């Protein structure tokens, strides 16, 4: 191992500790790229280390999520690639349940479609069929809570920050069905946003293909039982003490509520 490798490993470890501390203390941190360049490979290495810190504390990886799946978000970030992050059991909120707002910095919710993997997907099998591996679909809510100040980040920043993953709730699983262009409504208290699953790469099924491609490139395992959050169908809304509800036409609805204890 060269001195350069050692320096790179030390930087990854230091950045992961910084993001982990921001999450556990609910104290935001400035953009990493605001201080100097961060390439995407290093950003995924930071994410890996961040997730390792969480699993070392006893959390279990229960799924994966995609972000930047809408044309609007890609255009806003000036990128053409999705991002992938990891979900842990500590992020799960039961459907209809409550989540303590003290756990977050500035949480927002977004309406999503979730898929469940019924079988492992072999990343090294060029013929692997991720769509065939899916055994159920459900409406979902994702709580995103960037660890960066004012949600200001670059593409590499947000990759390092595990794609802002903070919480999620999944509605009732139903047998897999086509989910292109289903009407979606997100209500949070008196606020409402309407959209369509078509905002998720044109069809959430496309998100599964994009996920497999990213997981192959980043060596992120796809295991039986994993929840896959395919991406947001509308813009996110701030999460407060009011109920947040996502309704996806033909799939049903899912809700959660922020509470202050
Ligand atoms: O769709 C998403 O899950 C967004 C991921 C990160 C971007 C953000 O925090 O707004
Ligand atoms: Mg999302």
UniProtKB/TrEMBL annotation:
<dbReference type="InterPro" id="IPR036663">
    <property type="entry name" value="Fumarylacetoacetase_C_sf"/>
</dbReference>
<protein>
    <submittedName>
        <fullName>4-oxalocrotonate decarboxylase</fullName>
    </submittedName>
</protein>
<dbReference type="GO" id="GO:0005737">
    <property type="term" value="C:cytoplasm"/>
</dbReference>
<dbReference type="GO" id="GO:0008684">
    <property type="term" value="F:2-oxopent-4-enoate hydratase activity"/>
</dbReference>
<dbReference type="InterPro" id="IPR050772">
    <property type="entry name" value="Hydratase-Decarb/MhpD_sf"/>
</dbReference>
